[in-house]
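[job 0412] stage=complex_fold ligand=1,6-di-O-phosphono-beta-D-fructofuranose status=START
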Amino acid sequence: MTKKSALQIARAAYSPKLPLGLQGNVSIREGAPTQSVSDQEEIKKLFPNTYGLPLVEFVPGESHSNAPMNVGVILSGGQAPGGHNVISGIFDGIKKLNPVNRLYGFLLGPAGLVDHKYMELTSDIIDEYRNTGGFDMIGSGRTKLEETAQFESGLDILRKLDIKALVIIGGDDSNTNACVLAEYYAAHKSGIQVIGCPKTIDGDLKNDQIETSFGFDTACKTYSEVIGNIERDANSAKKYWHFIKLMGRSASHIALECALETQPNICLVSEEIQEKGLTLEDIVNDIAKVVAARAEDGNNFGTVLIPEGLIEFIPSIEHLICELNDVLSSKKYTDAQPSDRIDWLLQNLSSDNAVTLGSLPRSFAEQLTGERDPHGNVQVSLIETEKLLSSMVGQKLQAMKVAGKYVGKFAAQHHFFGYEGRCAAPSNFDADYCYSLGFSASQLIANGKTGYMAIVKNTTKPAAEWIAGGVPITMMLNMEKRKGMMKPVIKKALVDLNGKPFKTFAAQREEWMKNTCFVYPGPIQYFGPSEVADLTTVTLQLEHI
Ligand code: FBP
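[job 0412] stage=complex_fold status=DONE, emitting structure tokens
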């Protein structure tokens, strides 16, 4: 048996809180038919069997008997704290419906379904993982479920195991795939239901129906704890500028939430940089100005938060990435198999993009032109923007010094916080939220729903007042260009520059730049007063109170 930490042992006994509507016998309340956020005609045509379904809500109800059923579950994409609680919520939910019900986990993501790799999740396995971080119970993966052969192979194993419904726990891409799979199985009258669950630390799977994706709360708290510690270190020694890159892929939600929690001197917000059309040089100049202004007050230290996806939002680099995505996947490039990728690209890119690529430090250009992920995205987590920015700021300050415009000392430290937060033990919020999502998924299944995502609303209130239900995934779709073709996808939520979280930050940042206003959030509290242990993110509070 593997050794457990004291916290793990104590935490295993935690009973996640459920909304009132899911605590006893449950009834379903259906709303009016829905439509997609845009492109209604096209999406209706693509999803004739799952379009227009009503929103549903679970409320206290009568007891009724439930026929036995087997359910399958898949963890898809990047890890996020709380995944195991979604699975334990599904498990407890289906066992409550009928104790003979069984749960199967497909291994290492969607590939497990296609390759028929699975395990039955029994109560002793589930109990080992209650309230733990990570996805290691069944593993995760990024295989895209999008081809008929994959759907058919999945169908074979689902039929063999007599599985009635499959729950896919994933981000926007995985839930889009869940929607396509639900439609396919409905169109082929396979009798198999597909339900999605909103996961991602990035916080970009949210809209009118989804208040937050699970894992965002714990990941941001984990990063904020460490940022707070760094700020205190900076304020103690007063000799380093810390450049801290934060995970989050394209959207800056994580950086913004951490800024609201820790009040750093600078937090870059990619969406604002794009809107203002700033260049890399503009960003460097702005940071250098803050460093110089603080140096005048004798403060040769500070913190800069940098969202992981920043470079994709700088217009000239965005254009370059667009062309790189096409060129690097073209036959011309694969046939050439150049020994020096950068030299080859400098000769084969359009002239503007070749100039941009040529202007970047070689190591950075190498990172930018590296391998794409299975969805065709640049792997922004591998690009060291924090080092690029600090070295360019250092050069700028040197030039300012020569011109007599800067008198301080500049020494930088670099950090990248990403993987550290993705498998943290879920906060009370994520433990409760995820368990409720899993329970909600079991009810959607019991009520014969397919093409739905499990949701829980009213999450800034105490858990008993949360409202559990389901949203048809087609309601969240719009048409977007992907790899040169228009595809139905769930609209990704970037930081809204008119939203309260950004405005709250923008109203205070001038003061945070000049003065030292650091806040030290400390570690996640799993036990103790509710106002500390059950606290949600500032983002969620500002968006929903
Ligand atoms: P998901 O979108 O799948 O939830 O993944 C989130 C994420 O953590 C991003 O923030 C990050 O850019 C990416 O995964 C890293 O991917 P990988 O785990 O493949 O290195």
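The chain has a mean pLDDT of 94.
[job 0412] exit 0
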